[in-house]
Amino acid sequence: MNLSKFGEKFTGNSGILQLMDDLGNAAAENENVIMLGGGNPSHIPEIQIYFRERMRDILENDNQFEQLVGNYGPPQGDREFAAALAKLLHNEYGWPLKADNIALTNGSQTAFFCLFNILAGAFAHGPHKKILLPLAPEYIGYLDLGLVDDFFRANKPEFEYLDEHTFKYHVDFNAVSITDEIGAICVSRPTNPTGNVLTDDEIDRLCKLAAAHNIPFIIDNAYGTPFPNIIFTEAKPVWNEHIVLCMSLSKLGLPGARTGIVIAKPEITAAISSLNAVMSLAPGNFGSAIALDWVKSGEITRVGQNIIRPYYEKQAQHAKTQLQKALAGYDFYIHKPEGAFFLWLWFKGLPISSQALYERLKKRGVVVVPGQYFFPGIKEEWSHKYECLRVSYAQDETLLNRGLEIIAAEVKKVYQESQ
Ligand code: PLP
After folding, report:
1. Minimum-distance ligand 1 atom for the alpha carbon of 191
2. Is the CB of 255 under 6 A from ligand 1?
3. CB of 222 closer than 6 A to ligand 1?
4. Is the beta carbon of 250 within 6 A of some atom in ligand 1?
5. How many Cα atoms are found within 13 Å in the side-chain-facing hemisphere of 80?
6. How far is CA 43 from the centre of its chain?
7. Which of 16, 192, 390 most suits a substitution to test ligand 1, by most atoms within 8 Å of the C-beta?
8. Does ligand 1 lie within 6 Å of residue 220's CB atom?
9. Where does residue 94 rank: exposed (0-12), middle (13-18), buried (19+ CB within 10 A)?
10. Ligand 1, atom 8: closest residue by C-alpha
11. Closest residue to atom 7 of ligand 1, CA basis
12. What gap in Å lies between CA 40 and CA 38, rounded to an integer?
């Protein structure tokens, strides 16, 4: 089949597609595989009970179900939900939001596709623009979103060593340069894959830089506050006219509902709405319908605070302690887990690549994600890219323990073989 450039780009054998296939196949071929590689949230019973009850209410009340499945929503997503969310965020943080500051998408992944391609790529005048990722490692899902090649600029981080085995990345502001080639700045906070939470000062400085250059600052809040609130440090949530805040219902426990939320000035939400209309007529209705009551009552923030955050924080501490015990005496670092649900492991001077380690772990029935995919925009060779692994701790404790034991045993074997 003769494909357009678009067709080639989005169906071609990019590294990320191969990796996703590989992850999927590993799980399909071996039902006992310990999956510490995916982005699925935990199935937290209290949360799932609520979703089930809410679904039952929808089925039993008047014609709610028929409305839900029988009608397209508006292209900017359900307006009642948007108004309720604007009110909630105003009450919680004082942000001056109205419903037209909010557009919904079919998952926040779709929102990034739209945002990145309206803000970067080819322009009628001037150079091709790029998305600046001021701190890589950054989210793997951005990697292939550009309609054109050479879509990202990224900066290597500064390292802060917190103790013998813990470190934290910071934005290296000396390296951040906003030229007229940059169309927008983007960070995930908390960051997938590292669990980093950029400090308030870093966010403030990036926001000021974006404002000074009149470009949007996109903050990917898929794991952040006020929901799902998988964030273990004190970090001030921010929004203003320069910020495009992207949220999602996925990590709350609804990845199957595919609901992304873009909070921005109306010019941007209107553009998202137009793209929704072209690409899918309207975003799906399910996610906003299931979460509506929680948003209206504000329960969604309490659930984040009282159930979701403590749940993942416990998992993070547990996973970190297990690994530290299992790898005692070896040279390894873990990024300080400040949020999201991943441990980012760094084996400085690892004798094999993290890809080879991933293959070896897969043979032993444990699936993780090798680190090199998380550096979109960093073109230069840098050994650090090949020394890291992302390990999800969203699995239940028994499987997680077994998986971490196998990872530690295999890493030890790698070091022993190299002696
Ligand atoms: N952003 C980050 C940092 C993520 O980890 C994910 C999913 O794993 C997404 C965005 C996309 O999430 P969704 O499309 O399910 O809203």
Report:
1. 3
2. yes
3. yes
4. yes
5. 11
6. 18
7. 192
8. yes
9. exposed
10. 39
11. 39
12. 6
Q: How confident is the prediction along the chain (419 residues), in pLDDT tens digits per residue?
A: 899 999 988 887 676 777 778 887 887 888 889 999 988 999 999 999 999 999 999 999 989 999 999 999 999 999 999 999 999 999 999 999 999 999 999 999 999 999 999 999 999 998 999 999 999 999 999 999 999 999 999 999 999 999 999 999 999 999 999 999 999 999 999 999 999 999 999 999 999 999 999 999 999 999 999 999 999 999 999 999 999 999 999 999 999 999 999 999 999 999 999 999 999 999 999 999 999 999 999 999 999 999 999 999 999 999 999 999 999 999 999 999 999 999 999 999 999 999 999 999 999 999 999 999 999 899 889 999 999 999 999 999 999 999 999 999 999 999 999 88
Q: Hey, what are 348's tokens?
A: 């400085």
Q: How far is CA 79 from CA 26, 98, 150, 321, 328, in A?
A: 41, 10, 37, 45, 54
Q: Which two tokens stand for residue 193?
A: 């894959």
Contact 108 CB / ligand 1 (< 6 Å):
yes
Best of 108, 227, 258 to mutate for ligand 1, by most ligand atoms within 8 A of CB? 108
